[in-house]
Amino acid sequence: MSTSSRFVHLHVHTEFSMVDSTIRVPAKPDQADPKKAKQANLLSRSVEMKAPALAVTDLNNMFALVKFYKAAEGVGIKPIAGADLLITEDGQDPWRMTLLCRDREGYLSLSRLLTRAWMEGHRNEGGVAVHPQWLKDGCQNLFALAGRHSLAGRLASEGRHDLAEQQLADWQRVFGDGLHLELTRTGRDGEESFNQFALMAAGQRGLPVVATNDVRFLSPDDFDAHEARVCISTGRVLDDPKRPREYSREQYLKTPEQMAELFADIPDAIDNTLALAERCNVEMRLGTYFLPNYPVPDDETLDTWIQKQSREGLEERLQVHPLAAGMSREDYDARLEFELNTIIKMGFPGYFLIVADFIQWGKNQGIPIGPGRGSGAGSLVAWALKITDLDPLPYNLLF
Q: Are 48 and 1 in contact (CB under 8 A)?
């Protein structure tokens, strides 16, 4: 990673944070090149700024990661995976912490936390959050940024500095040297008072500070469009005098030079962003299929099991349904073996068995199951495994 720049943006929301960002991720990797981008996007602007690395930290999701990763790799910018997590317990107002993945294990930790949030952490007010204990138990290989929206930040803003410091001590025991304090200077209320607390706490507890711009849009001119998006997500209108105004026009993707100037009095907050970025090294294996391990009997393999299940399933089907006109039983057997050989050769037995399993479960629960899609839906194997209920041979359906 190039070190020509001392600053790295570590807190950026994209269009996948639908509640509060308008920043586009390139739809195709080549559009990260400013010369090929149809309109400015996160990567094309970062290329223009000669950014060495960049983190995407969307709220409660990593939906942008694959597009972001491919585009960043294509233009020589180091991609950093992360997310903003809402955290709450016992009905308290949720607070926020930014998590960055140290490596693949960190990526898996964050994936598990987000999955659990969306499965178990739904809030009555809308959205999801994780319980603090989930994070404490599942934070392996993750870095954390605690800013003014963290619980420590909230307590500090209320003047309860002792409790805020205790919060930092608690999370320092969890994350060790992975805990950082986040400083921002975007002109919002409470920023400077939190920064002063954070610098004091950093000195006392030996915590590193990092500067971010809590980025939500590409340029100052995008602020109004950003506010419109916030209003849409909160059900407000722009001219409502009572609506919360939680963002400022300064939360755009500033250049490293602008950020260095903004924090000229705290140079460590700039240098630490680069140091942290160098510690984040997630390598994604793209283009390879990863399927759950489908359990089969000890004396079977996925290949032999799909063959057995398909042959038995075809036998059951043909005991009830007539052969297609002009077709013999040998035609059915030959088609089935051709399909099975193709499926096994392509490494998809597990896929068919898994789909058959949850389709059958749905039917057993009385859940309506719609028709299949794609070439697999026209296969005799899908009919034999009871994924579909249509014999493909009378209709000349393709596999």
A: no
Cα 244 to Cα 337: distance, rounded to the nearest angstrom: 64
Give bridge partners of residue 12 from the DSSP assignment: 215
Q: Confirm if 100 and 10 have CB atoms less than 8 A apart.
A: yes
End-to-end CA distance of the chain: give it in Å, rounded.
47
Q: Is the dihedral of CA 369, 371, 377, 382 positive or negative?
A: positive
Q: What is the chain's alpha carbon radius of gyration, rounded to the nearest angstrom?
A: 27
Instruction: State the chain's maximal CA–CA distance in angstroms.
Output: 85
- Chain mean position to CA 90: 26
The answer to whether 108 and 283 have CB atoms below 8 angstroms apart is no
Sort strands 142-146 and 95-101 into parallel, antiparallel or unpaired. Answer: antiparallel
Q: What is the share, in percent, of the chain residues with pLDDT greater than 90?
A: 86
Which pLDDT score is estimated for 371? 64
Distance of CA 155 to the CA centre of its chain: 29
What local confidence, expressed as pLDDT, does residue 374 receive?
Answer: 73
Alpha helices in the chain (DSSP H): 42-48, 65-74, 104-120, 132-137, 151-157, 161-175, 191-205, 223-234, 256-262, 267-279, 302-320, 329-346, 349-364, 380-384
Q: Please state the three-class secondary structure of 215-246 as a single string.
A: ECECCHHHHHHHHHHHHHHHCCCCCCCCCCCC
Phi, psi of 367 (to 5 degrees): -90, 125
Distance CA 215, CA 186 (A): 10
Helix (H) or strand (E) holding 83: strand 78-87
Cα(259)–Cα(273) distance, integer angstroms: 11
CA distances from 110 to 10, 15, 84, 276, 281 (A): 16, 20, 10, 17, 14
Question: Which H helix or E strand runs over 210?
Answer: strand 209-211
pLDDT of residue 42: 97
Q: Render pLDDT for 100-145 as a digit per residue (tens, 0 to 9).
A: 999 999 999 999 999 999 999 999 888 899 999 999 999 999 999 9
Of 51-65, 222-236, 252-266, the poorest mean pLDDT is in 222-236
Domains belonging to the chain, first-starting first, are 29-279 (3.20.20.140), 302-395 (no CATH)
Q: Give the CA count within 13 Å in the CB-facing half-sphere of 176.
A: 4
Residue 217 φ/ψ, nearest 5 degrees: -155, 165
